[in-house]
Each structure stands twice: as structure tokens, then as C-alpha cells.
Amino acid sequence: MDIHEVLQFVDKVVYAKTGKRLNDLQRGIIEGTLKQQKYSEIADTYRLTQGHVKDVGYELLQMLSDAFDEPVDKSNLKSVLARQDNLNISFGNSNIIGYINVCSDRPTATPDENQPKTPDFQQAKDEAKIETIGKLRQFGLSDSQIAEVLGLTLEEVKQVDKAL
Fold first, then answer.
1. At residue 127, what are phi and psi to the nearest 5 degrees?
2. Which of 36, 56, 89, 136 is 20 to 30 A (C-alpha) from 99?
3. Helices 121-138 and 3-18, interaxial angle, to 10°?
């Protein structure tokens, strides 16, 4: 996975949990954290104060902690993401931490015209659930194991077959 896909994954999880999309600064904080940048470096990139970036970073990490149901901080973000989506993270400079490829080239931010103007929290939550169940099946987990891991009933997991 490259950084764009990582950011999409995190955005999807946050959207499913909160009904809000990540903003540019939050995306930059995630990317910078994965590249082991300090808040001061991220602040310079966005021409903001370090204090503001630190405040937004703190709120973001709290939001991610809630979304992933485990404590998230700058020092464990990579490992939390790896556990959440069985991701492996690698950087363009050949530091391998798994399969996420965090390229040094940052994609230009463009507004997503397909993004709904009114958040449909339940639909996003259902889509994330279906995608997660599908991925877990690809890894060879049984429906009962998936239900246990995701805290769902076996019937809910089996309903995903009908949704596909």
C-alpha cells in the first residue's frame, strides 16, 4: 500500500466512526508521523505554528484511538495501522516496516467530487464492515473467527455473503 491508500483507509475508518472526513492537515500529520517527522517539520510544511499542529495532532490521535479501539500515539501509529488492516508499511527510502509504501512524492490535494455532501454514517459503516469481512476471509479466517474478531454476531457476518 502507498501513503495515498493508507490515508484512504484511515479516512474510511474515521468516517465510519465519526461521519467526518480527514482534512489536509490531519492527512499531513498521519503522513508525517509515518515518516517519523516532528510536529515542527509538519508545521513548516503547512506554514502553521507548531502549537496548532500539535493540538490538531493530539485531537487526531484521540480520534484514531476511538476509531481503532486502542490507544494511538505518534510512536505506535504504524503498528496500530498494521494490526487494523494487516498492513505492512514500507517507505520510498527502503525502510521496510511492512507493505505500506509511503512515497516521498505527495499527491496533490484535490477535492473529492464523489464525496457525499451529507454524511451517511450507516452506509459508510456498512461498507467498511463488508470490506473488512472480505479481507479477513481472504486471509483464511472462518465466519465464526471473523465474528469474534469484529465483535459481530455470526448472522451479521453471514449476511455479508448476501450483500455481495
1. -65, -45
2. 56
3. 130
Instruction: Indicate whether 35 pLDDT > 60.
Output: yes
Strands 89-91 and 100-102: parallel
CB 88 within 8 A of CB 100: yes
- The CA distances from residue 61 to 10, 44, 48, 145, 146, in Å, are 12, 20, 19, 29, 26
Do 66 and 128 fall within a single domain?
no
Q: Give the domain CATH number at 135.
A: 1.10.10
Any bridge partners for residue 96, and if so which?
90
CA-to-CA dists, residue 51 to 23, 31, 89, 101, 130, angstroms: 17, 18, 28, 29, 39
| Judgement on whether residues 83 and 141 belong to the same structural domain of the protein | no
pLDDT per residue over 106-124, tens digit each?
A: 444 444 545 544 455 566 6
- List the 100-102 sheet strands across, edge first: 96-97, 89-91, 100-102
Residue pair 43/58 in contact (Cβ under 8 Å)? The answer is: no
Q: Among 127, 124, 132, which Cα is nearest to 151's?
A: 132
Please tell me the pTM assigned to this model.
0.55
In a domain, residue 111? The reply is no
